[in-house]
Amino acid sequence: MTSTDVTLRHEAGLHARPAALFVKAASRYSSAITVRFGEKQANAKSIIQVLGLGARQGATITISADGADEAEAVAALSALAGGDFGAE
Question: What is the pTM of this model?
């Protein structure tokens, strides 16, 4: 299992468009991927669960993956979340 902590930079946190981009990116990997915020944990491939975390700008989330491409998945998702989801 590979995991890392990431601080959300996007002004909306893991809501709406950023959450959709996060889930779309997570779905590209075969590994089981979870994201944790506080006491809540979500399947990173489920938009409903990711939105349910309520993670806002400045929140620190933990992204974990377990599987054949776990390191690649965690690296890509942490770069996306920590990199402001590609916003200009």
Answer: 0.93
Residue pLDDT, tens place only, 15-71: 889 999 999 999 999 999 999 999 999 999 999 999 999 999 999 999 999 999 999
The count of C-alpha atoms lying within 13 angstroms of the C-alpha of 80, restricted to the half-sphere facing its C-beta, is: 19
- Which amino acid, one-letter code, is at 7? T
Domain that holds residue 65: 2-86
15 is catalytic: yes
The catalytically annotated residue of 15, 50, 63, 80 is: 15
CATH number at residue 67: 3.30.1340.10
pLDDT of residue 88: 45
H/E run at residue 60: strand 60-66
Could you give the CA distance from residue 4 to residue 2 in angstroms, rounded to a whole number? 7
Q: How many domains does the chain have?
A: 1
